[in-house]
Design a protein that fits this description.
The protein is α/β, with parallel strands linked by helices. The chain contains 10 helices and 10 strands.
Length: 328
């Protein structure tokens, strides 16, 4: 389970084999067996003792700090000398080879295919857009060669498909169009959901021995988790878009003042709805390699499969394609 700290002034400490959380101006203390926790997500100014940190890390419990927009800005995880250095060395070698182009093609194919599949579930006929997106996805196979020459072509096809996808969404909700820095409730909600997803993807990259800062499609930029930007593409629609868009369609989220704070950011009510919905989806069932498992578990296996392909233990990298009719 995830322990989410979203109240100002919370104090997190160790109590035997439990994580204890107390709050100012109250005698209430909540205790959580550390063996039941998978991560501690801190979303409000809080304090945590070194004892709590040591206990969490001893049980592989991730500690993550999220900003108001949902993006992770820091994390604490265990230090293991010599940890999977072979994977990182091969990863760096891969970024300079045609193998990076292949991985990038597969990731974008997965993203576009998941966009098509989601549109097909919506109460509007998007057959024309879906067919155009399918044609764009097929063009990916024509792009070959070193990634430094293929990158712009790949981004171009991805962008064409994204334009069709978001234009379709504008037909069913009052969506102004995808804007990474948008200040409307639609873009801010998607960004908040993506922030939660970034955190999960980064965690599994680290566990698989991959360097989050060394990407294949997205180039290395100081302080940017380029690989996370790569891997997340296949998961945006299954985890976030297909979770939040129905909330707008059902008016559980809306472009109104009841979901904004005085700073024109999402207020606590909106953030709570988004966090609950996204984590519900992450714990929903999906099928991966013929086996039924939680979405988070599938994400972990998928990231490990990427690492296995990078080091040569797998012959191919298959994109994650979500069956929207099968999740429960």
């Amino acid at each position: 389970m995830e322990l989410i700290i979203n109240k100002f002034g919370a104090r997190i400490k160790k109590k035997y084999e439990r994580i204890a959380v107390s709050f100012p101006n109250t005698n209430q203390i909540k205790e959580y067996p550390v063996r039941r926790l998978s991560k501690i997500i801190i979303m409000a100014p809080s304090s945590i003792t070194s004892g709590a940190v040591q206990l969490a890390l001893a049980h592989d419990v991730d500690i993550v700090y999220l900003e108001r927009r949902g993006m992770p800005y820091g994390r604490i995880y265990g230090s293991k000398p010599g940890r999977l250095t072979e994977v990182k060395r091969k990863q760096i070698e891969t970024t300079k080879s045609e193998k990076a182009t292949y991985i990038s093609r597969q990731m974008i194919f997965g993203k576009i295919t998941n966009q098509q599949r989601f549109l097909a579930t919506l109460p509007r006929d998007f057959a024309d857009q879906i067919e155009k997106m399918r044609s764009i996805a097929q063009l990916l196979n024509l792009i070959k060669g070193p990634i430094e020459y293929a990158r712009d072509q790949l981004f171009g096809l991805e962008g064409r498909a994204a334009d069709l996808y978001f234009q379709a969404l504008r037909d069913i909700i009052r969506f102004p169009g995808r804007q990474a820095q948008g200040t409307d409730v639609y873009n801010m909600s998607l960004n908040y959901g993506y922030g939660i997803l970034y955190n999960e993807v980064e965690r599994y990259c680290l566990l698989a021995g991959l360097d989050p800062f060394v990407g294949f499609l997205h180039t290395e930029r100081y302080g940017k988790v380029s690989l996370v930007f790569d891997v997340i593409e296949e998961w945006r629609v299954p985890v976030v878009d297909s979770t939040l868009i129905p909330l707008f369609m059902n008016h559980e989220l809306a472009d109104s003042t009841e979901f904004f704070g005085a700073d024109h950011l999402l207020n606590k009510r909106a953030r709570k709805i988004i966090v609950q919905a996204v984590f519900d989806r992450l714990h929903a069932k999906t099928v991966y390699n013929g086996k039924t498992m939680h979405m988070l578990t599938a994400m972990k296996h998928h990231t490990y499969d990427l690492a296995a392909y990078v080091v040569g233990r797998k012959r191919e990298y298959r994109p994650f394609l979500y069956d929207f009719g099968a999740h429960t």
